[in-house]
Amino acid sequence: MSKYSITISTMSTEQFPFTCVGEIGGVEFESATIMYGGRPIWKVKEHGMLPAPTEMSAFTRGQRSAIAAWAKKVEQNTELVGSNSQLASAMGLAPKRTAQPSVQVQSMKSEIDELKALVAQLLGNTNDEVEEDSEE
Question: Can you count the helices (H) and strands (E) in the chain?
């Protein structure tokens, strides 16, 4: 659970960049997405800049990080718009951070299995022989 109380009052995900407005500890913020590493990430918008330099920000690095994390959760479950981050997390309504990586891990495991099969096919070996070679 976040140590900050964050509420996102509005969120727009119809077109890029996604945007949201909310408050953290009673202070209003505006946030939007930028592309980073091929995926959208949330950044706090201040002074007309996205993101604003940390030195110019009214928020701490921890607050900015917490805003981004909560915005991502609300993006994944729009029913959380208007919900307090601390209450939603405590009640188990917010998705857990581990939910997405486990899907990615499963995807990577199946990709590895496919690659092992391809290598075995190219070398004319069976899957057992390729696995034995990789363990040595």
Answer: 4, 4
Please report whether residue 68 resides in a domain.
yes
Domain range for 19 is 6-90
Quick check: helix, strand or coil at residue 89?
helix
- The total number of structural domains in the chain stands at 2
Tell which wins on pLDDT, 103 or 20. 20
| 67/7 Cα distance (integer angstroms) | 9
Residues 28 and 85 in one domain: yes
Both structure tokens of 21:
């407005």
> pTM, whole model, 2 decimals?
0.63
Task: Return the sign of the alpha-carbon dihedral for residues 77, 32, 25, 62.
Answer: positive
